[in-house]
């Protein structure tokens, strides 16, 4: 599945533990990239709920099962599927009202491996319309009895039992199925078509002013069983003949090309179309797919592969899918050439669905996407949108090899699908968007975010024990950042130390061996070992399995500590030293670490650390301050580095004199590492600050972004605006920001289009400008007023997208009611997009006159001025502002009875989270508690008080930290 795009399934399981900076980075990236989300909570697509136990399932759980306790289990191996003949008939006509259902028939040819009197397969939420078993089928050596193929005799069915909790159907037989023979299991069934985005589902949408419906499917990981009875495990591959019956005005799509359409009449004599698809290749059930719609498409052929991009007619007519069409063929060819294995299907359909839970899904030959993941609006001119589409399309195309052709044996090795697809998505995307820098974007999107997440006791390892992964719930939780981003980072490291040439050679061997079949992690290691053994250029310190298992089978990652006086490198798991550490695995927390390194600017041969610490004489440096060492050059490994003070001093010196001597990605790593080391108690904040001294010479926006997210996190802006820190920070940072600020401000004033190819400007310029304005840089404030006034004078004028949020905020902040009223007018303007509305909603909270904020909050209460779900958004915007937080709090307490009646506890929870940041003293806690006493239940009061105590401790720690920062700034502000 696709990793991004607001997927309900892509759940960062440690999200709660992420530091604010990372959340903000993600938020900034999402806002800039997607720009397509609902403006207020409640308008977003609801998360897909787990399918409820279906009353129509034809039977309760197994007698004796306690109700509601899942008894999920793997299927027995008595029967293995060879081929499915599947017919699906959604009973949907255009314009018809629901409820809707579908009926179907599936005949599954199975091979019996062990004598049995029961057939056990998956089925969930389906109502049976009859079941039968025929066989044994004649085998090639059997005597031929007649001119027609013998369908086999009937095997008498004793009963069909549905185990709802286990999601299986058990077909009990009076006769015995014999090992070695083939049988056909026949099931008629019926299911409900809901608008739930799982299984086979229905979506309503508008196209060319008309409302329409479509039917589509999403079967990964275990929804195939809700569409047809099947052997729904990834290793139980089979071929499929699929037939779909549908209204004649729709087109039906599936994995394979349609080979026939015919007509039929139903019991009422009404006409339907029957579309029959060619026999598929051997594949897993979770990548079977069905779409029935009234879409248009654009098409082109690449090396005999017919590529069609389907979307709403309006979108196709407007050219919104042309970009996707232009890149899909080239990425296919790029991957075919790189992997040296042809795409085996004759066609590929990519469908832009108006509503879709996952960002995208790689179904073989019929990929499905959210519209926002596939559509590029020619008016946009946003490289960032193009980059996102290229990345998502590449990811799904990567799956055609990693996932569809070769599939993981079981979900515990899901990273073999998702990690590898996430690695190749960047190769494919930078191939079609060569201006994107592969290593910068890979580190920024993939490695850095997961390093921030994979550092707590309890975070799982990349590859799990097979027995641990059971049940649909634990499967869904595997589609997380560990699987995608750690999987891709480990792959990057592997390719790095093997060399890309050997790595690709090994993948080719792996893909060939397991085509149309399944593999586990060890199979991949074996094929890499084979290519390593067949050459002598690359020497490894241990077997591939031993090296790689240390990264995939234990959780977390190491931090290396380098002492350049002794030449010693040691490793330990990177964990928060402020918490209690617990060792959780059997590897004693050592990794076999490839270390690429550099001394005084020249790259050195790769070395390995394969124990907890080792001595490297070549890393002992001289007295000269020009003798320095840099480890993990260009993100070659999945770890952090903690340098000793001597080396850090030399690196600080080097950065001030010649920052380009260190590659950009390594400068990024260096800064990201020192801030992370500070947060986790390895080093003092002063050390991290030393590394920011050189920033006047830093011209890379993605590096500035990581510094600003650490120094000026958005949620702490009010806290940082204290009299001790703010003036010093202002002086110190502005001095360093001016060069890069003026560079970009020049483009904004004169030729903003020239920034179109600059990806990082598209996603990170906003943070730079927001900080410059926050620090009171006069030019930034002037620019904001200037552009905002220009907009007020001519509503056709568009403030450059890159800094629209900042300009709107400061436009309102620097103005009076005239500017505020204009924002209000524009917010209510019918042409405003959702994103514009969100920007304006936020901008109106930037007002500096308190009466405007009072009035804004009051507007928020109105039923007629706002849709009701905006109220809490407005409050949370106002409460984060300097002058707003007190105003918002008073407003909440005064209006509590009304707010609580309308919006319940959730609103209070949101506001309390923000208020918690301002709690420093017991007096303040008491003040909040007085309010709780009248509003909360007993148990809630206890929880809330605990949260406040926790916030108080956090805030006190932060104050201590800020005191240190202020002291350091005092000493260094004039440097
Ligand atoms: Zn995927």
Using the coordinates above, name the CATH class of one domain: Mainly Beta
Q: Can you list the ligands bound to this structure?
A: zinc ion
The global form is globular
Structural class: alpha+beta
* CATH fold field value of one domain: Immunoglobulin-like
The mean pLDDT is: 87
Strand content: 15-25%
How big is the Rg?
30 Å
State the separation between the terminal residues, measured CA to CA: 50 Å
Q: Biggest sheet: strands, sense, closure?
A: 8 strands, mixed
Total helical elements: 29
Low-pLDDT windows of residues:
4-71
Overall description:
- This protein has 975 residues and is α+β, with helices and mostly antiparallel strands.
- Among the domains are: 558-697, Sandwich (Immunoglobulin-like); 723-848, Zincin-like fold (Alpha Horseshoe).
- The protein is built from 29 helices and 29 strands.
- Strands 5-4-8-2-1-11-14-13 form an 8-stranded mixed β-sheet, with no helix packed on it. It has a 5-stranded mixed β-sheet with strand order 16-17-18-20-19.
- Helix 3 (322-339) crosses helix 6 (415-432) and helix 19 (759-774) runs parallel beside helix 21 (804-813).
- The longest helix has 35 residues, at 938-972.
- It starts with 19 loop residues before the first helix and ends with a helix.
- The relative contact order is 0.07.
- The site of zinc ion (ZN) has 7 residues, from helix 5 and helix 6.
- One of its GO terms (cellular component) is membrane.
- The active site is at 396 (proton acceptor).
- Residues 323-551 form the Peptidase M1 membrane alanine aminopeptidase domain.
């Amino acid at each position: 599945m696709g990793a991004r795009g607001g997927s309900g399934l892509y759940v960062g399981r440690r999200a709660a533990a992420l530091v604010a900076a990372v959340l903000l980075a993600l938020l900034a990236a999402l806002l800039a990239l997607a720009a397509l989300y609902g403006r207020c909570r409640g308008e977003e697509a609801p998360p897909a709920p787990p399918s409820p136990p279906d009353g129509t399932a034809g039977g309760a759980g197994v007698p004796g099962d306690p109700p509601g306790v899942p008894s999920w289990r793997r299927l027995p191996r008595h029967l293995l599927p060879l081929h499915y003949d599947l017919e699906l008939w959604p009973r949907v006509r255009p314009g018809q009202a629901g409820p809707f259902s579908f009926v179907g028939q599936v005949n599954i040819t199975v091979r019996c491996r062990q004598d049995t009197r029961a057939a056990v397969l998956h089925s969930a939420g389906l109502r049976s319309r009859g079941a039968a078993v025929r066989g044994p089928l004649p085998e090639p050596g059997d005597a031929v009895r007649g001119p027609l193929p013998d369908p086999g005799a009937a095997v008498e069915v004793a009963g069909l039992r549905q185990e709802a909790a286990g999601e299986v159907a058990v077909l009990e037989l009076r006769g015995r199925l014999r090992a070695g023979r083939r049988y056909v299991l026949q099931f008629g069934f019926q299911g409900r078509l809901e608008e739930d985005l799982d299984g086979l589902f229905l979506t309503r949408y508008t196209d060319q002013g008309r409302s329409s419906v479509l039917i589509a499917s999403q079967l990964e990981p275990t929804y195939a069983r809700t569409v047809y009875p099947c052997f729904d495990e990834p290793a139980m591959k089979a071929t499929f003949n699929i037939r779909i019956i549908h209204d004649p005005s729709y087109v039906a799509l599936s994995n394979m090309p349609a080979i026939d359409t015919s007509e039929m009449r139903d019991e009422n004599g009404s006409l339907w179309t029957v579309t029959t698809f060619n026999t598929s290749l051997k594949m897993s059930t979770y990548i079977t797919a069905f779409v029935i719609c009234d879409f248009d498409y654009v098409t082109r052929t690449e090396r005999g592969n017919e590529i069609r991009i389907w979307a709403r007619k309006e979108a196709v007519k407007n050219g919104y899918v042309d970009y996707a069409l232009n890149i899909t063929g080239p990425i296919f060819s790029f991957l075919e050439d790189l992997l040296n294995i042809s795409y085996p299907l004759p066609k590929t359909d990519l469908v832009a669905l108006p509503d879709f839970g996952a960002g995208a899904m790689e179904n073989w030959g019929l990929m499905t996407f959210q519209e926002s993941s596939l559509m590029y609006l020619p008016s946009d001119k946003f490289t960032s949108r193009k980059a996102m589409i290229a990345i998502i399309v590449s990811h799904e195309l990567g799956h055609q090899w990693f996932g569809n052709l070769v599939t993981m044996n079981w979900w515990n090795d899901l990273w073999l699908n998702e990690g590898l697809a996430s690695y190749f998505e960047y190769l494919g995307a930078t191939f079609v968007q060569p201006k994107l820098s592969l290593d910068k974007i890979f580190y920024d999107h993939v490695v850095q975010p997961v390093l921030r997440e994979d550092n707590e006791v309890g975070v799982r390892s990349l590859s799990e024990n097979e027995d641990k992964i059971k049940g649909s719930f634990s499967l869904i939780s595997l589609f997380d950042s560990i699987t995608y981003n750690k999987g891709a980072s480990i792959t990057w490291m592997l390719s790095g130390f093997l060399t890309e040439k050997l790595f690709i050679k090994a993948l080719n061997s792996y893909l060939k061996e397991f085509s149309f079949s399944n593999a586990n992690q060890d199979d991949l290691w074996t094929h890499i070992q084979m290519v390593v053994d067949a050459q002598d250029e690359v020497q490894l310190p241990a077997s591939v399995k031993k090296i790689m298992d240390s990264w995939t089978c234990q959780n977390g990652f190491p931090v290396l500590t380098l002492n350049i006086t002794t030449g010693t490198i040691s490793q330990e798991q990177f964990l928060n030293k402020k918490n209690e550490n617990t060792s959780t695995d059997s590897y004693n927390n050592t990794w076999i670490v490839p270390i690429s390194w550099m001394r005084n600017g020249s790259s050195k041969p790769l070395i390995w650390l394969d124990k907890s610490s080792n001595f490297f004489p070549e890393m002992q440096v001289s007295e000269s301050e020009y003798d320095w060492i840099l480890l993990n050059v260009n993100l070659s490994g999945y770890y952090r580095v903690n340098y000793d003070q001597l080396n850090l001093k030399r690196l600080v010196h080097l950065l001030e004199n010649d920052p380009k001597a260190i590659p950009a990605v390594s400068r990024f790593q260096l800064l990201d590492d020192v801030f992370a080391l500070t947060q986790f108690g390895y080093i003092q904040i002063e050390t991290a600050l030393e590394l920011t001294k050189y920033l006047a010479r830093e011209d890379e926006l993605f590096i500035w972004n990581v510094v600003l997210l650490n120094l000026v996190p958005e949620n702490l802006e009010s806290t940082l605006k204290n009299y001790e820190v703010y003036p010093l920070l202002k002086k110190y940072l502005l001095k360093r920001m001016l060069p890069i600020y003026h560079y970009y401000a020049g483009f904004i004033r004169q030729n903003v289009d020239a920034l179109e190819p600059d990806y990082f400007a598209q996603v990170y310029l906003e943070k730079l400008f927001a900080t410059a304005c926050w620090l009171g840089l006069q030019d930034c404030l002037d620019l904001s007023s200037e552009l905002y006034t220009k907009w007020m004078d001519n509503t056709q004028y568009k403030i450059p997208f890159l800094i629209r949020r900042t300009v709107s905020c400061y436009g309102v902040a620097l103005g009076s009611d005239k500017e505020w009223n204009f924002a209000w007018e524009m917010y209510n303007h019918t042409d405003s997009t959702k994103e514009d509305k969100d920007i304006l909603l936020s901008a109106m909270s930037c007002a500096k006159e308190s009466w405007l904020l009072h009035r804004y909050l009051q507007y928020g209460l109105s039923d007629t001025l706002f849709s009701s779900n905006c109220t809490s958004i407005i409050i949370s915007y106002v409460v984060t502002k300097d002058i707003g937080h007190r105003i918002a709090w008073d407003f909440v307490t005064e209006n509590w009875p009304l707010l609580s009646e309308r919006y319940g506890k959730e609103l209070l929870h949101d506001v309390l989270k923000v208020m918690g940041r301002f709690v420093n003293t017991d007096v303040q806690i008491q003040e909040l508690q007085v309010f709780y006493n009248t509003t909360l239940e007993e148990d809630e009061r206890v929880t809330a008080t605990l949260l406040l105590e926790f916030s108080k401790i956090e805030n006190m720690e932060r104050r201590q930290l800020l005191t240190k920062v202020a002291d350091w700034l005092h000493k260094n502000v004039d440097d």
